[in-house]
Design goal:
This protein has one helix spanning 32-40; strands at residues 13-18, 21-23, 50-57, 60-66. It is mainly beta and 73 residues long. It is elongated. InterPro entries: Prok_Ub, PRTRC_protein-C.
Length: 73
């Protein structure tokens, strides 16, 4: 008789990246846009940034905040 397979459930962590820096995930229950807005209080350029992701990397959902590209003038 064979043993039943064990199933391990692990929570996938979230990471927020802006310009190569990892930013804190203040509240895992909030969406990525809400996290971006909270960080925009101390990093003003995030107010107009776009959220890309999530992308699964090293067992974590990685969201990247990127500056919007625009033209001056």
């Amino acid at each position: 008789m064979t043993k039943p397979s064990e199933i391990t459930v692990t929570e996938v962590q979230r990471k927020f990246i802006y310009e190569g820096r990892e930013l804190a995930d203040f509240n895992p229950e909030l969406g990525a846009e809400d996290i971006k807005k909270m960080h925009a209080m101390t990093i003003p350029e995030l107010a107009s940034a776009v959220v890309e992701g999530p992308e699964l990397k090293d067992g974590a959902h990685v969201y990247t905040f990127k500056k919007r590209l625009g033209t001056k003038g």
